[in-house]
Amino acid sequence: MSFGGSCHSMDWLTSRGRAFLYAFLSTSFRDHFTLEKMQRIMNAEDLAILTSHLARLDLPEAPRVSTALAAVTAAWQKADAYQELELQKAYARLFLLPGGVHPYESIYLGNQNLLMDKPWEKVRQFYRNLGLEKDTAELHPEDHIAVELGFMSSLAYMTAAAGKGSRQDLLAIQCEFLIAHLNRWAYQLACDIRGKCCGEDFYWLVSELLDGLLTLDNQAFGEEKPQESNQKKTGREKFGQEKVKQEVVPKGRSRGRRRGSSQPLPGRLSAKDDHHAPAAGTAERT
Amino acid sequence: MVTEKHTFCNVCSANCAMKAQIVDGKIVAIKGNPDDQVGRGKLCVKGYSAWKMVYDPQRLKFPMKRTNPEKGPGVDPGFVKISWEEAFKLAGDRFRELSAKYRPESIVVACRPQDFAVRWAKAMGTPNLSRHHDTCYTTHDAMWRVTVSGTARPWTHDLENARYILSFGWDQPSKGKNMAARQYVNALAKGAKAVVVNPLLTATGAMANEWIPIKPGTDLAFILAMINIIIEENLYDKDYVEKYTTGIEDLKKAVKSYTAEWAAGITDVDAATITRIAREFATTKPAVIPSHKRDAGGPNYDNGWRVAYGFIILNALVGAIDRPGGVIFERNMKLPNLDTVFPPPEYPKNTAGRFDGGEKNKLFGSTAKYGNVVLADAILSGKPYPLKGLFVRKYNVLGFPNAPRFVEALKKLEFIAVADIMPTEIVQMADVVFPEPHFMEVEAMSNRTYNAHYPQVAYSAPVIEKLGDYKGFGSIVIGIAKAMGLGDYFPDGVNGIRLMDEQLKANGYSLDQLKASPNGLLGDPKPFTGREEFGTESKKIELYSKKLQDNGFDPFPAWKEKKEKPSKDYPLYMVITRHAAHRMSESHNNELVMQVAPECPVILNTVTAADLGIKNGDDVWVESKINKIKVKAHVVPGIRPDTVCVWHGFGHWSKDLPLAYGVGGNEGDLVYDLSAKALADRKDPTLSGLMSDMCVKVYKA
Amino acid sequence: MKYAMVIDQTRCIGCSACTVTCKGRYEEASFGVLRTRMLEYQTGTFPNVRLAYRKQACMHCFEPKCLPACPVKAIFRVEGSNGGMVDIDIETCIGCGMCVRACPFGAPEIDDKRRKSEKCTFCDKQVLRGKTTYCADACPVGAIAFGERDKLIADAQARVKALKAAGRTKAALFGKDSTGVMLIIDGDPKDFGLPTDGFDVSSLNWLASPFSGVMIAAAIGGAGLARYSERVKEVEAKEGK
């Protein structure tokens, strides 16, 4: 099975930078902005790797993602306590109060404007087919944008850490999730968010980044649809086997694990910061 | 795989037991529980649609604090998500500061009676519990307390066994109330006769044998004439009256002048009809005048409490109180309250009176089932003392009389904490917001009151996992109290679950037993035996109340007119009803309900509308002396030409309720609120509001 | 067994419990598109006014006008219901609105968003599994009876007799010989927006021929037209026309 022709595409799809970007977006949608959190997750090294990767990437969307990433980075770097509060207000207005957007697949693809509608069932089933359940500490439902992006991020980290053999299956799952879920509603969500704020707002930039990342991934996965059968028949089993093999490291003890080593497979699905952001590596470095 | 969990409906206080059908953690439908004596296996339209609110994306999700000090309709509160600890600390600190700076009574706790909230208020040392009953049913509650029960009013009617049902504005069937509608329809099918006295034709009147469109606010005259006729013609139940009542002779003298002819001149109902109905009512047994809340005896008109007393007298005269086919005191479990189960440390003493002076009322004052009618004026006037802090649970701005003035009052407060499910108007005014779970997400127990023929409790399991970061109301109150340093009143182990267990144990059961009950209910049917004694000092029903007299009120429901009558400027009476599918304002954003009742019209008579040049569906203004609202005209023949009727409670200005925002108008805007002085001057022993005692004009928008 | 429903409009309180239950169960349709609705009728002049409700939904006619009107043959009689139930094959339906125009009861409604016709299916999937219809199960006042047709008719006629004895002389059972859903009404059918019993809707007969050209094209309107003609071609091809 192949994902497009370019080796650049495969570079991108298996990069830690990509995983980091999904994690960053998931975190941004999951909870409101705090300077402390941004400082923790947006470490210079990750950013530098990502930026240089994007600069070298031979995909049409790469420059747009680069620009958006730079803008987001600039926005948080110059944020002070006042702007922190303004961003928190913006978050509540956009994502917690009904005047904003409802960042749930159920709202976008269901026909009732209610949570936990059919699309939510489908997303949950997708996770379940891989043996995953949402973490009980995760307050958002399975079809919240933060959880869906968090899921992609987890898989992307695993892809980056995996050997050549298991990459294909992991990528097949991501591609299918993109096609079956994110592609169908996240663009519209990003568009709606942009419609509710102006061009310099943090969340305008974040949704631009979301739009860009999805487009980039779609370009990377290529025009050609991957064969779904592979994932359906073998993906689950492979995934399951890996899960057995992987040692699940409790959060507290994961500190000090080497960066770039394989991430623990999230048996519980969560969009929590700690899962996706390379907190372990950061801790080691500092 | 469908699993069923037992719960009960919490849309209204009937608490019909229901079974939620769950597929893989998601509610797919709800059904009635056939073993429940209240719902008997059915729910009403509100119950059937309640579960959609669980999945409403508009629900409050996290605690929030306000960052914009400016408040009001259209002002962005600048809410920011905060943690529960921060929310508790914020509310605790602010309430403690206000209490120290202005005295404890500057804080008002506005919510339905709830043990934990009452303890918290007492622990703070504020006497100010503000409640909605003065806009809802205090008239009935207080009159039953004073003249019959010594405690509260009965909520059960044995309509199914009645042969003659006389309604003065009682309209439960058309409002879809499950148990009332079922009983009414069954009684009629069994051949009972029903007469409905109501300016507006609804399903209740349409099904009845007679609809009598009486002039609004004059039911008292009709009732007094009936009392007179029944006593004069010796038609009353001699055995019952002799054995179970006092004061018949005094009453007889007092009502002598109230003839059918006199009443005809007031009510617009001819004397022969009044006489005939009086005779039919007294001679067809069992006969009953059912009553719920905002019927003619509710807190609508200046004479509301007199009508409520009139209902009691007429029911007593035909032996319908606590007898088969009549008005029945609920047979339910006697549950000890929080302070009995977990005795508190001594409460601080505070000699300050309430903001509305209600405690001066020796008949009813101690119940604290009033306050909302006066609250706006008390805040704005600063009399008798400044009010600075408010805690509100699920009372929306729109539910207060003269809602725009209440909003002005809220702006004057220094701190407002709100516990709610939806981002309603009161949430828009809040400084801190505590999100509560939907009733489908919590464990609870219901002691039956509506339709309680034998003691039975219903269990509510948490049907689904909480969808957000919610805490139950008890935990919210305890959290704030602890943050205020009042933790001694809420030591560990004092919580709602243990209270339930202790309450059941006092009745020979336990919470485990209730949880294990295969039908989610505990308590077996028992045969009915009527009361031999009542709760007054005389142990009898007092038809002529010395107690009222001793406290400076009329001892019987002497004639008094409603306050406001049609004038040149405001020529139309206004009455209020609502669609069966709505329950006040909380269902206005319900996906299912808004598909069947999306508008709140003003109902106008065909002739009146033609005179005003108004066609069905036109936008019109309805204007009272204080405000005006824009609504759609619904033109029908089934209403008095001198009367209009507005559906209750729309007119949301919270943009956070997308389905409800901007739809229709809030009739509460037209209703007058009262000052404490105006309330006292009314000489109303029930401390009630005047929810329909105004006139309006209607014109094309 | 011949299934039927009797809706006793003299018991009905117009609360819409049936509507919300039905919509809660059959949630595919868009907001506001309902399979069963509650209509209020007031007749007369004050103070002699009659108020009554009618549960407006598919009556499951024995000779459904919608069935021949459907250009793509999406409407069918449910097997095993002995003629009592009429359903729509939603996959085949193109939402052209011909059934809406043909129905003398105003029952079906077009869901513009899905371009599908939405109407009561008599809960056929429930009923054929031995269960009752959702609305009959929900009605808090027992105004909706579901069951075996002959028994229901006998009960309904007894009810009509009792109503008449109580002075409600206009009480009648509507649809006894013509519809799967019958109504007990107290008044003239026309006061409930109903055609006379054993209705003859000859004025609508032109709709029975689905391929009659310009008028129909105009009736369907722009958006539906392309899909409509496409579907017609498909059906024609399938049938070897």
Describe this structure in words.
- The complex is a heterotrimer of chains A (286), B (701) and C (241).
- By secondary structure, chain A is mostly helical.
- Helices cover 66% and strands 1% of the residues of chain A.
- Chain A is built from 14 helices and 2 strands, in the order ααααααααβααααβαα.
- In chain A, strands 1-2 form a two-stranded parallel sheet.
- In chain A, helix 2 runs antiparallel to helix 11 and helix 9 runs antiparallel to helix 10 (164-195).
- The relative contact order of chain A is 0.18.
- By secondary structure, chain B is of the alpha/beta class.
- Chain B has 23 helices and 27 strands.
- In chain B, the strands form 7 sheets. A 7-stranded mixed beta sheet of chain B has the order 5-4-17-16-15-6-7, covered by helices on one side. In chain B, strands 22-26-23-25-24-27 form a 6-stranded mixed beta barrel.
- In chain B, 63% of the residues are buried.
- Chain C starts with a strand and ends with a helix.
- In chain C, the strands form 4 sheets. A 4-stranded mixed beta sheet of chain C has the order 8-1-10-9. In chain C, strands 2-3 form a two-stranded antiparallel sheet. In chain C, strands 4-5 form a two-stranded antiparallel ribbon.
- The model of chain C is unreliable at 197-229 (pLDDT under 50).
- The longest helix of chain C has 17 residues, at 149-165.
- In chain C, strand 9 and strand 10 (181-186) form a beta hairpin.
- Chain C is built from 8 helices and 10 strands.
- Helices cover 28% and strands 21% of the residues of chain C.
- Chain C is of the alpha+beta class and 241 residues long.
- The B-C interface holds B 29, 31, 42-45, 48-49, 51-52, 173-176, 178, 181-182, 185-186, 189, 191, 201-203, 205-207, 209, 211, 213, 580-581, 591-593, 595-598, 605-607, 636-641 and C 10-17, 19-21, 23-25, 31-32, 34, 37-38, 42-47, 49-53, 137-143, 159, 162, 166-167.
Key attributes of the depicted protein:
heterotrimer; A: mainly alpha; two-stranded parallel ribbon; disordered C terminus; B: 701 residues; alpha/beta; six-stranded mixed barrel; 30% helix
User: Percentage of helical residues of chain B?
Assistant: 25-40%
Gross geometry of chain B: globular
| Basic shape of chain C | globular
Average pLDDT for all residues of chain C: 83
Structural class of chain C: alpha+beta
Unreliable parts of chain C:
197-229
Compute the gyration radius of chain B: what is it? 25 Å
| Tally of helical segments of chain B | 23
Unreliable stretches of chain B (pLDDT < 50, length at least 5) are: none
- Strand content range of chain C: 15-25%
What is the SS-derived class of chain B?
Answer: alpha/beta
Major sheet of chain C: 4 strands, mixed
Question: Got a strand count of chain B?
Answer: 27
Strand content of chain B: 15-25%
Q: What does the oligomeric state look like here? A: heterotrimer
**Biggest interface, residues from each chain:** B-C, 48 and 41 residues
Helix content of chain C: 25-40%
Q: Give the SSE string of chain C.
A: EHEEHEEHEEHHEHEEHH
Main sheet: strand order of chain B = 5-4-17-16-15-6-7
